[in-house]
C-alpha cells in the first residue's frame, strides 16, 4: 500500500510475520543529534564507537557553517533539525555500499550490561535538493533473528523540510534486534546515487535481562527450574558476542 503525506509517498507494508520486542521498562532510548561533535570547515568525522555504533559513509556537517555557503543552498540549511549538526550520507561510489551504521563492538555492550543489538525508532531525513524527477530514499535493517526488512520513501522534485520517519508505524515491520542499518538515495530512472541528510536518530538499547534475572543456584534447585536455566545459560554462552 502506498501512503502519501504532504506530497511525500512511502511504501506501507503489512508483514505476514512481525516480531515484536517484549515490553521492557528498563529499555534505554537514545537520541543522537551529533551536536556534540566539533566540525572544522563545516565537517567532522564520526568517532567509532559513537554510542556503541560505527558509522560508515556518513559525515557530520554543519549546514550553516560559512565554509559551506558555496556548496549548500539556503533550502538545505534545515537539514540540522537540532542545530548545529546533522549527518550527510551517500554511497561510497556510484554503485558502492550504502551509508550505514551498525553495532561497533558487541563485547563492550555486553560488558556494559546491554544486549548487543538495537531497535530503530525514528529519524528525520530528506534529500539534498531534489531536481526532476525526484529522489527515493531506502532504509534496510539487518537483524539477528529475521530476514532483512526494507522501506522506502519518495520525494518529488523540489526542496523539502526534513521528514520525520516513525519507521515501525510507516513500514508495518519490526525494526528490532538489529545489528546494522543501511540507507541510500536513488535519483531518477537510472538510480544514480544522491546525497541525503539525517538528524535526531532515535534508537533503543535493551539490558541483559537473562543475566539480571538469573536466580541463585539454591533457588533454582528448590524451584525445580534448573534444567531450563542451564539451557538458557548454554544458549547465552554459545552466542558469537561472548
Tell me the helix content: 10-25%
What oligomeric state do these chains adopt? Answer: single chain
Question: Could you say which structural class the secondary elements and strand pairing correspond to?
Answer: alpha+beta
Radius of gyration: 20 Å
Q: Biggest β-sheet: count, sense, barrel?
A: 8 strands, antiparallel
* Order of helical and strand elements: EEEEEEEEHEEEEHEEEHHH
Anisotropy-based shape: globular
What's the total count of β strands?
15
**What number is the mean pLDDT?**
82
Strand percentage: 25-35%
Labels describing this entry:
15 strands, globular, 14% helix, seven-stranded antiparallel β-sheet, alpha+beta, eight-stranded antiparallel β-sheet, single chain, 5 helices, 242 residues
Provide a brief overview of the structure.
Helix content is 14%, strand content 34%.
Overview of the molecule:
It contains five helices and 15 strands. The model is unreliable at 12-23 and 211-237 (pLDDT under 50). The chain has helices at residues 106-111, 167-171, 209-212, 217-223, 226-237; strands at residues 2-5, 8-11, 28-32, 43-44, 53-56, 58-61, 86-89, 99-103, 119-127, 135-143, 149-155, 163-166, 178-187, 192-193, 196-205. The chain is an alpha+beta fold and 242 residues long. Strand 10 (135-143) and strand 11 form a beta hairpin.
Task: Explain the layout of strands and helices.
Blueprint: E1 2-5, E2 8-11, E3 28-32, E4 43-44, E5 53-56, E6 58-61, E7 86-89, E8 99-103, H1 106-111, E9 119-127, E10 135-143, E11 149-155, E12 163-166, H2 167-171, E13 178-187, E14 192-193, E15 196-205, H3 209-212, H4 217-223, H5 226-237
Antiparallel strand pairs: 1-2, 2-11, 3-15, 4-6, 5-8, 6-7, 7-15, 8-13, 9-12, 9-15, 10-11, 10-13, 13-14
Amino acid at each position: 500500500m502506498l501512503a502519501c503525506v504532504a506530497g511525500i509517498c512511502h511504501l506501507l507494508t503489512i508483514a505476514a510475520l512481525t516480531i515484536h520486542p517484549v515490553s521492557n521498562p528498563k529499555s534505554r532510548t537514545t537520541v543522537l543529534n551529533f551536536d556534540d561533535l566539533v566540525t572544522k570547515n563545516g565537517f567532522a568525522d564520526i568517532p567509532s564507537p559513537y554510542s556503541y555504533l560505527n558509522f560508515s559513509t556518513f559525515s557530520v556537517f554543519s549546514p550553516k557553517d560559512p565554509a559551506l555557503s558555496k556548496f549548500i543552498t539556503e533550502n538545505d540549511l534545515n537539514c540540522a533539525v537540532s542545530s548545529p549538526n546533522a549527518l550527510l550520507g551517500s554511497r561510497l561510489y556510484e554503485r558502492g555500499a550504502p551509508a550505514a551504521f551498525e553495532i561497533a563492538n558487541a563485547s563492550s555492550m555486553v560488558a556494559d550490561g546491554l544486549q548487543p543489538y538495537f531497535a530503530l525508532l525514528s529519524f528525520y531525513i530528506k534529500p539534498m535538493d531534489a531536481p526532476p524527477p525526484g529522489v527515493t530514499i531506502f532504509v534496510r535493517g539487518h537483524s539477528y533473528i529475521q530476514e532483512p526488512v526494507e522501506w522506502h520513501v519518495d520525494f518529488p522534485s523540489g526542496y523539502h523540510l526534513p521528514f520525520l520517519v516513525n519507521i515501525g508505524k510507516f513500514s508495518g515491520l519490526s525494526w528490532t534486534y538489529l545489528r546494522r542499518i543501511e540507507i541510500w538515495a536513488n535519483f531518477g530512472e537510472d538510480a544514480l546515487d544522491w546525497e541525503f541528510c539525517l538528524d535526531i536518530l532515535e534508537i533503543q538499547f535493551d539490558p541483559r535481562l537473562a543475566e539480571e534475572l538469573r536466580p541463585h543456584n539454591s533457588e533454582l534447585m528448590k524451584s525445580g527450574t534448573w534444567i531450563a536455566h542451564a539451557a538458557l545459560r548454554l544458549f547465552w554462552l554459545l552466542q558469537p558476542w561472548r
